[in-house]
């Protein structure tokens, strides 16, 4: 469905990265956003907010599912210069959804190496905070910069679910090459892998 926030995507949705007029998107921003955990103190009388430290990462694979590169808080750019990470946000939306992305990954589709076939975006909970308690984790694809949103192409919003209980990482979606066209697929699968390398291994085994 189209809104002023772009296409509202559901799990398993696939969209071609092109504008409404059919022109290809050249450079896109993947904005990631998440909320604070609500907790209560003093016998449940006073509600409080617990900030959430999620780390957004990118894993880059070739057609043989071999890991070519990764981008995360400790490595903010891909080898080919096509993918740039805005840096680590250790709190998220502690005071409510402010409409601003916590971390942004810029992808220059024209610069992506010819060897690259799939680019997967995922989140890991640095402090082991449970995705079953995090109220939302969102991704949006837009044209602009990490600080300026020009046109939103698509959004994908995951609210906490019972199935996420005990899970501390989340595969959000992936960009993949289909002939000379780039497409985006939403995934939205929570995992119990605690660190980035373990999440990448699961992605290789199950989501490519």
Biggest beta sheet attributes: 7 strands, mixed
Total helical elements: 1
Q: Name the strands of the widest sheet in spatial order.
A: 1-2-13-12-4-10-9
Helix content: under 10%
What structural keywords apply?
208 residues, mainly beta, seven-stranded mixed beta sheet, 1 helix, 15 strands, 5% helix, globular
Structure description:
- This protein has one helix at 196-206, and strands spanning 2-3, 6-8, 14-16, 27-34, 37-41, 46-50, 54-61, 67-71, 83-85, 103-108, 118-125, 136-145, 148-159, 169-178, 181-191.
- Strands 1-2-13-12-4-10-9 form a seven-stranded mixed beta sheet, with no helix packed on it. Strands 3-15-14-11-7-8 form a six-stranded antiparallel beta sheet, with helices on one face. Strands 5-6 form a two-stranded antiparallel sheet.
- A hairpin with a 2-residue loop joins strand 12 and strand 13.
- 5% of the residues lie in helices and 48% in strands.
- It starts with a strand and ends with a helix.
- The mean pLDDT is 89.
- It is mostly beta strands and 208 residues long.
- The protein has one helix and 15 strands, in the order E-E-E-E-E-E-E-E-E-E-E-E-E-E-E-H.
Quick structural summary:
With 208 residues, this protein is mostly beta strands.
Topology record:
Layout lengths: L1 E2 L2 E3 L5 E3 L10 E8 L2 E5 L4 E5 L3 E8 L5 E5 L11 E3 L17 E6 L9 E8 L10 E10 L2 E12 L9 E10 L2 E11 L4 H11 L2
Parallel strand pairs: 2-13
Antiparallel strand pairs: 1-2, 3-15, 4-10, 4-12, 5-6, 7-8, 7-11, 9-10, 11-14, 12-13, 14-15
